[in-house]
């Protein structure tokens, strides 16, 4: 454990040093954040005060709702990685807002209020609170206990589905993460999954802890997220409704937020990320670049009698392209994230409306919400393929797919391998071809027939002719 902590400390120090270097470089180019230096702002005594002020201005509903609308639920803020509880102390005591702090270290919020916040409040407020404390020595702790509670835990993939965290998210009106380090992205994903407004102020990036994060550059290529600026961009790219704002304090002061507007300007090109849903997750959402989609279609040599599956299809962009390009082909997509599927279905409906007569119709494409791994149970069973034509909505990978596209993590590819094996065996028995293109990652243990580097993002595509 000691050794682990030492290594963790060293790793963090290295990453902070890297970020400082990047920050200094940006400053030299006039691109840095507000403030004199690239420091993280940990020594900026006013940052919580300024952040709370900004919160109240940016989310005015916090004040109006907490001001006593007894009919609606009391306003509650979920403060992730709340540390010693200064935000909770300020929000609860100065603005009568209920707060749930999520942090693995227990916070003494009352003590934080008395020692850190109170001495910096205007004299009049100090006098009033001291008077009330003279009348009742427990005045502060009683007030804070009635408004602040804590979940002593982290917010991450392991804890996100716990009943306590889910309850707290459901009953909160706003999720916040001020320098929440490794929890930052989890806050954004949790807020999206629950349709709640949020604000995060990213701090450390932890590129080695999150190597799968990629950010899209202006030329359409993708690069791994290594710097603070790239991390902010990466979060913004999750959804076109997200915006950033600069907070009035030094150091890491860029906030990424969504005010919760229901009139989504999301046009399907930047759909929501998938909720974190435990062990069956084969990959996080990251759309395949358009140029790679075209190349994958070419590599698969798709014909009109093919049935193409995209396992983890996201918003179905690969299948839409294939259905538009190859007359007669049937394209089926499965994704665990219903929001992405909804986005894709909306795009298909729009395209069908605007380009009638194209190959894209109800019998050529079907994208559905589901878990790809569910089909594994059917492996031991006899094929259910009927003699007549199966309607596209009933087509399964094992019984109908002749071509497959995947963009999944290596661990995900390993998990779906038995499915691909079985589908290949069944096709071979019928004398039909079966080929797979995997974007970005090789399928472990199989030799690719062809490898292509997609020109724009320089990301590989691997073609497999699956012969059993
Ligand atoms: C990297 S994205 C690829 C999206 C799409 N194929 C594309 O190329 O644009 C991986 C997708 O797999 C989905 N996914 C992860 N685990 C899954 C599972 N067990 N069943 C179905 N979809 C899954 C995610 O929701 C995500 O949309």
Give descriptors for this structure.
468 residues, alpha/beta, Rossmann fold, 2 domains, seven-stranded mixed sheet, binds S-adenosylmethionine
Protein described:
This protein has 468 residues and is of the alpha/beta class. It folds into 2 domains: 11-265, Vaccinia Virus protein VP39 (Rossmann fold, 3-Layer(aba) Sandwich), CATH 3.40.50; 280-465, 3-Layer(aba) Sandwich (Rossmann fold). Helices cover 37% and strands 16% of the residues. It contains 15 helices and 16 strands. It has helices at residues 2-28, 47-58, 61-66, 86-95, 109-117, 123-135, 139-147, 163-170, 184-194, 228-236, 290-300, 317-325, 338-354, 397-400, 410-429; strands at 76-80, 98-102, 148-151, 174-178, 198-201, 214-216, 222-224, 243-246, 254-258, 307-311, 330-335, 365-369, 403-406, 435-439, 450-453, 460-465. Helix 5 packs across helix 7. The longest helix has 27 residues, at 2-28. The two termini are 47 Å apart. The structure holds S-adenosylmethionine (SAM). S-adenosylmethionine (SAM) binds next to helix 12 and strand 11.
């Amino acid at each position: 454990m000691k050794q682990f902590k030492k290594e963790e400390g060293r790793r963090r120090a290295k990453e902070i040093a890297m970020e400082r270097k990047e920050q200094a470089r940006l400053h030299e180019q006039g691109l840095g954040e507000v403030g004199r230096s690239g420091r993280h702002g940990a020594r900026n005594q006013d940052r919580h005060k300024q952040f709370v002020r900004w919160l109240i201005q940016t989310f005015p509903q916090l004040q109006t709702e907490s001001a006593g609308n007894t009919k609606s639920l009391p306003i509650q803020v979920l403060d992730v990685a709340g540390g010693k509880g200064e935000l909770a102390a300020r929000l609860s005591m100065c603005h009568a807002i209920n707060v749930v702090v999520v942090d693995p270290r227990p916070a003494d919020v009352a003590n934080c209020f008395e020692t850190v916040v109170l001495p910096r409040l205007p004299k009049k407020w100090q006098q009033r609170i001291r008077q009330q404390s003279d009348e009742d020595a427990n005045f502060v702790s009683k007030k804070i206990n009635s408004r602040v509670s804590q979940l002593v835990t982290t917010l991450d993939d392991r804890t996100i589905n716990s009943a306590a965290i889910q309850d707290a998210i459901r009953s909160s009106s706003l999720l916040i993460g001020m320098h929440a380090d490794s929890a930052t992205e989890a806050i954004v994903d949790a807020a999206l999954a629950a349709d709640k407004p949020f604000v995060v102020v990213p701090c450390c990036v932890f590129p080695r802890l999150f190597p799968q994060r990629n950010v899209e550059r202006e030329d359409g290529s993708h690069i791994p997220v290594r710097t603070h600026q790239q991390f902010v961009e990466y979060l913004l790219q999750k959804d076109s409704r997200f915006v950033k704002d600069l907070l009035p304090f030094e150091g890491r002061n860029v906030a990424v937020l969504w005010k919760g507007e229901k009139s989504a300007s999301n046009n399907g090109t930047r759909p929501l990320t998938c909720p974190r849903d435990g062990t069956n997750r084969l990959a996080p959402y990251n759309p395949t670049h358009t140029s790679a989609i075209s190349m994958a279609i070419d590599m698969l040599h798709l014909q009109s009698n093919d049935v193409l599956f995209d396992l983890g299809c996201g918003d179905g962009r690969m299948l839409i392209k294939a259905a538009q390009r190859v007359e007669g082909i049937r394209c089926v997509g499965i994704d665990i994230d219903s929001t992405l599927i909804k986005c894709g279905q909306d795009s298909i409906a729009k395209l069908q409306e605007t380009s009638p007569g194209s190959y894209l119709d109800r019998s050529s494409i079907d994208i559905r919400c589901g878990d790809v791994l569910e089909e594994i149970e059917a492996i031991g069973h006899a094929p259910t393929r009927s003699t007549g034509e199966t309607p596209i909505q009933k087509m399964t990978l094992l019984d109908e797919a002749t071509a497959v596209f995947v963009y999944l993590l290596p661990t995900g590819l390993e998990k779906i391998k038995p499915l691909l094996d079985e589908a290949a065996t069944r096709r071979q028995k019928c004398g039909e071809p079966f080929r797979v293109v995997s974007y970005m990652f090789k399928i472990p243990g199989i030799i690719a027939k062809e490898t292509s580097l997609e020109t724009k993002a320089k990301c590989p595509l691997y073609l497999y002719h699956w012969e059993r």
